[in-house]
Amino acid sequence: MAKTKKVVGTHGYISPEYAVHGRFSMKSDVFSFGVVVLEIVSGKKNRGFSHEAHCDNPLGHAWRLYKEDKSIELMSGSLRNSCVMSELLQSIHVGLLCVQHHT
């Protein structure tokens, strides 16, 4: 793990430990990958996300759905007729594993 004094990256894609503490590790790239996977599945960007029922960020929303066994609700409408549900759910799970706080 390396530590830097100047944090550089796109807001919403850099890992929390890097953004807050300047700690960069292999996990930092994994976090960014997970964000992109969840964006692809949902069809929504990580930045500018809003939900009428709660004020979670996109990752919090994905975790909420996962914990409520409703991950399928994260799926973009454009994927409904062209995806294999088991693969979609696996993709969501991989994305969540990449962005989890605890290793």
TrEMBL record:
The keyword Kinase applies. InterPro entries: Kinase-like_dom_sf, Prot_kinase_dom, Ser-Thr/Tyr_kinase_cat_dom. Residues 1-103 form the Protein kinase domain. Pfam families: PK_Tyr_Ser-Thr. Transmembrane segments: none annotated. Keywords: ATP-binding, Kinase, Nucleotide-binding, Serine/threonine-protein kinase, Transferase. GO terms for molecular function: ATP binding; protein serine/threonine kinase activity. GO terms for cellular component: plasma membrane. This is Protein kinase domain-containing protein. It comes from Lactuca virosa.
